Amino acid sequence: MINRIMLILSAVVGLGVALFVAYQLGASTAYTLGYAQGESAAKDKCQQAQLDSLTAVIDSAHGLTAAANTASQELGKTISARKQADAKATKEIRDALASTAPLRAGCVFDAGVMQQLDNARDRAAEAAAGGIRGAVPAAR
Predict the structure, then answer these.
(1) What is the CA angle 131-125-130, rounded to 5?
(2) Where are the alpha helices (DSSP H) in the chain?
(3) Which residues, 6+ apart, have CB-to-CB distance to 137 below 8 Å?
């Protein structure tokens, strides 16, 4: 009878030890799993923050590209207007000089030609002082 009691008591103690070991292993595994999930969530949050930052940089670059394109188009229009004004002034001077070509044989220039040359010189000085982005001076 005592052997049976000892056997039952040993089985209960063994079962208790087995349950305790199983509980400890389960708790350890749950802790490790929870820790890994928390670490993964922190990494995901960090990666999302970096992705948002890179997206903001890309969006900013798109805006800067659009602004540069607009500035380039405006500069092209200014250069074109400058070329047209220069071509017109050059044509006017050539036409005026052509009308008085026989008189220049003795280095005599018509007063109108000299006036146009003075005006062209003044406009050129104004344009040079205003820079390429400045307004094109009007013909006088």
Answers:
(1) 20
(2) 2-99, 111-130
(3) 85, 122, 123, 126, 127, 130
pLDDT digits (tens, 9 = 90+) for 33-43: 778 888 888 89
139 in Cβ contact with 118 (< 8 Å): no
Residue 69 tokens, joined: 């394109």
Tokens 């002082």: give the residue: 129
Which pairs count as long-range contacts for 52-61, CB under 8 Å and 24+ apart, including other chains? none
The Cα 73–Cα 101 span in angstroms is 41
User: Quick one: DSSP state of residue 45?
Assistant: H
Q: What is the pLDDT of residues 5-23, one digit of tens each?
A: 877 878 888 888 888 887 7
Instruction: Give me the residue label for tokens 């079962």.
Output: 15
